[in-house]
Specification:
Shape: globular
Number of strands: 5
Strand order of the largest sheet: 3-4-5
Low-confidence stretches: none
Strand content: 5-15%
Radius of gyration: 24 Å
Oligomer: single chain
Bound molecules: acetyl coenzyme *A
Largest sheet: 3 strands, antiparallel
Helix content: 40-55%
Order of helices and strands: EEEEEHHHHHHHHHHHHHHHHH
Length: about 425
Amino acid sequence: MGDTGKDGKNSLSIRDNRTGREYEVDILEGDVVRAMDLRQIRVNEDDFGMMAYDPAFSNTASTRSTITEIDGGKGILRYRGYPIEQLAERSSHLEVAYLLLKGELPTKDELDAFVEDVTFHTYVHENITEQVGGFRYDAHAMGMVISMVSALSTFYPDAKDVDDPAVRWQQIVRLVAKLPTLAAYTYRHHRGLPLVYPENELSYTANFLSMLFKIGTKEYKPSPVLERALDVLFILHADHEQNCSTTAMRVIGSSRSDPYSALAGAMAALYGPLHGGANEAVLRMLNRIGSVDNIPAFLEGVKRKEERLMGFGHRIYKAYDPRASIIKRTADEVFEVTGRNPLLDIALELEKIALSEDYFVERNLYPNVDFYSGIIYQALGFPVEMFPVLFAIPRTVGWLAQWQEMITDPEQRIARPRQVFVGSDVRDFVPIADRG
Ligand code: ACO
């Protein structure tokens, strides 16, 4: 419950000036009121009752959650209470995955068992592998992965039993394990290279890099720096509470769809340039700007609203996105191995100038996670089409943790928002010959 007021009450008094009636609604933990408590407010007995109007859910909590906490004003991000900085520094992606999915950090035995479980579910059915060949050579990687994830539901009909915890866990392990395989297949297809099967001796990220970049029978050993950098990027992207794609996952899952179908929907939401597609859009933008000299003219266009500065701004963060600071450090480590990405100079200068301009200061626009991630992905050798996929692999963990929380939450039902109908009143059908 929220703090108790000076009159000892923990409630909100509402006066309806249309009727003069007063209502008292409880204030719950988190300074929220139940939107359903507004329903009692009506002028006539047969009125529907009052609703909250909130396009894009800007001020509506759709769930109570114990997974990820963000304080956008202070630039804080925590998974299950652990600060993202500590996890990025001291943990691994699969350990963080266990934390997000189970609620607690694993013991050594629990982590070993989880890693082994994931490692031995990395193969996908050969019919899925053949599906890759059905796409055009230039098909977007994200479109391919979304289709294959959706197709996985047809291979695991048992996944429909979403209320069985053991069944749920099996699909979770399968999805966490198979996403890198599917992602790597799209890259190899795009390049016209033979597919590389998973290598169970390697770590999660080393295996992914091997499936992407291994040529012929020669043993592939990724640089430990790059292997770790990718793991850190995966940790940073693992969850971000109720964003657009997570909301899609929860909404689709609320109808009791299987998790493969729900996850394909979440990935589709992530694909858009205002969400997970932003890292790809940032790279295209930096290439278009081309040189530091062109930055002022570009920013003038942004201020005239002819452009958006991709990788800047966030619905929740009104301070520096803590993930962006960690990514900036990771970029330096990666460039020590790969050589400096020349786009970094444009990005750094763009950030410096933007942060000193009134337009950005007044609107609290800071770099978000996507501003620098694409530059690292490019240095690692990924084409831009792979960037949203590189986001989707770790976010699969967050989507599944949130889906599981939704399925087991007794307060949740099938998601079904209301509307305020503002269209035409009833009217008679006019035959086509009589229409003007
Ligand atoms: N460039 C220029 N102006 C911007 C930007 C931007 N990147 N972001 C917001 N603004 C401006 C808006 O035009 C608006 O200005 P106004 O008050 O004069 O109308 C003001 O800042 C508020 O912006 P909104 O669009 O209302 O903010 P909202 O919370 O709806 O949007 C979003 C957040 C979508 C992330 C937005 O900042 C954006 O489009 N950023 C660029 C795309 C991007 O980087 N997306 C990745 C987000 S992180 C993630 O999903 C992983």
